[in-house]
């Protein structure tokens, strides 16, 4: 029996013994610890590595939309961002920013509107290969999304971005032909017939508003080769403006709604501050009294209220159908990372057998932030500051307490990151680690659900994009090291 088969067998046996996911998360933690992490989205997954981040979204047509971008913190010359404590703050801020961007991408491609159009008139088929022919708008409300097909090799296993991982190109052609309403392709066209500078599948793919407006007038579809189609489905490929100049995703954030994203981020941060800092502090002041009257009790009550609000918030949003699906993607992310850390090929069959909980989950980090906050707030000499400044009781003193709490958040995030991610995540077998991570692991029962194979496919697709970049960067570093070594030997010989 091979080593991979042994791992699968042991995992299956563990599952057959009805061990809890919490127990399995500790006992089945893979030997290959990875820094790759992710975030569940609405109908998708975002994965982040050292150098890039990728998003995989399940489209209404059943295909998977893939997108990847460079990670700013992965660039050279930013070593200070990886210093202890600093890296925790960097990770928190980066997670917030990338999370909003990823959610925006997911919302754009997971909920494409179905806007029926008039059937296109049949024309003579082009001599161009039909391997990437797309269905008309009448057949599906997101005809371009069905052409999104990405094939990756990982340990000999082929992962398709179609709804069925085993479906090949012939299955995709059958799906496209099923409606019998395919528009015929032009031999040289790609834009609206008879309209110069009109809608173009090549140029405007990925812009929902433009696509929806043009569907009713579209008379033909451009036929492209399979390789070309795969390239178009990647939003990481540059989009073109009216002048033909290529622009990247980051250059076109305004078209995504840069202002809306900024407003959403600010609103989310303000809401978080109100829910988890201002409200608990206000209620604690009513229950315990003035902060300097009994500082330890004040901070403990405040911390417990904060945790209670957080747990209730997760429980409440978890009742929503869309969030339940998103929590399923969270479970898929964990299973995929488990699979990779055990050295198995990334397939739904392999990933499915692993627990949906993971010891290095960000949920544990958030709980640790709340616990560490109680300690940091208690040891902070705020009473001396109140006395020195002569801050009066009531609203002024409470405002100062809240302001200090906000200012200390980067310090708390840095300490929590070092404990939860760097230390505890690297020593899952340590009994003390199990005690420290226990609250966060329990929270994962609220934030994860058992995923279906389609959700696992999304997680695998996003993971593979990050791993490809990691391997490419490692190969580049090895090549540079070999070149340097060769030059040194040549210099020594001379």
From TrEMBL:
Which parts of this chain are annotated as the region Disordered?
1-26, 115-205
Q: Does the keyword Transmembrane helix apply?
A: yes
One Pfam family it belongs to: DUF1385
Query: Which regions are flagged for Acidic residues bias?
Result: 115-126
Q: Which residues cross the membrane?
A: 260-283, 295-316, 357-378, 398-417
UniProt keywords, alphabetically: Coiled coil, Membrane, Transmembrane, Transmembrane helix
Which portions of this protein are annotated as coiled-coil regions? 460-487
Has keyword Membrane? yes
Q: Which PANTHER family match?
A: MEMBRANE PROTEIN-RELATED
Its name, as the record gives it, is: DUF1385 domain-containing protein
Q: From what organism does this protein derive?
A: Gordonibacter faecis
